[in-house]
Design brief:
Radius of gyration: 14 Å
Strand order of the largest sheet: 2-1-3-5
Helix content: 25-40%
Number of strands: 6
Largest sheet: 4 strands, mixed
């Protein structure tokens, strides 16, 4: 697995339904707006797949932080992220967007920063069959 600073996608938001895609976009915008010098690379899996399939696909792509978004997360703005590596977890039960931002900043501030070179929504990315 690539280190967090080198991962093309650092965070993947997985909405449990299409009605939460807009909320995920707001969360991504909020993360990106916290610091103009730190590039948080996040995307949203808005495909018409089951949540389990989206999580499995994110794990197969070695996404370091996976966040499932539903009604509770929308209202409370607190998340229970799934960390690919245990060393990323600060041991908290729940994380706010600010907590997640600080976690990424702490582990990536010494390294080069760049934007995600792919569309924000997975449904807009090229698909390869094979």
């Amino acid at each position: 697995m690539l280190p967090l600073w080198l991962s093309p996608t650092q965070i993947r938001f997985i909405p449990i339904g299409q009605e939460f895609v807009g909320d995920c976009k707001r969360f991504v915008d909020e993360l990106k707006g916290m610091d103009n010098h730190l590039m948080v690379r996040a995307d949203i899996d808005d495909r018409e797949e089951s949540v389990a399939r989206k999580i499995r696909d994110a794990e197969k792509e070695w996404i370091p932080i996976i966040i499932v978004v539903g009604e509770k997360e929308k209202e409370r703005k607190k998340f229970k992220p799934r960390f690919r590596k245990a060393e990323l977890d600060d041991g908290k039960e729940e994380y706010t967007l600010e907590d997640i931002f600080k976690l990424i900043k702490k582990r990536t501030k010494e390294y080069p920063q760049d934007r995600l070179p792919l569309p924000l929504l997975l449904s807009q990315r090229a698909k390869f069959a094979g």
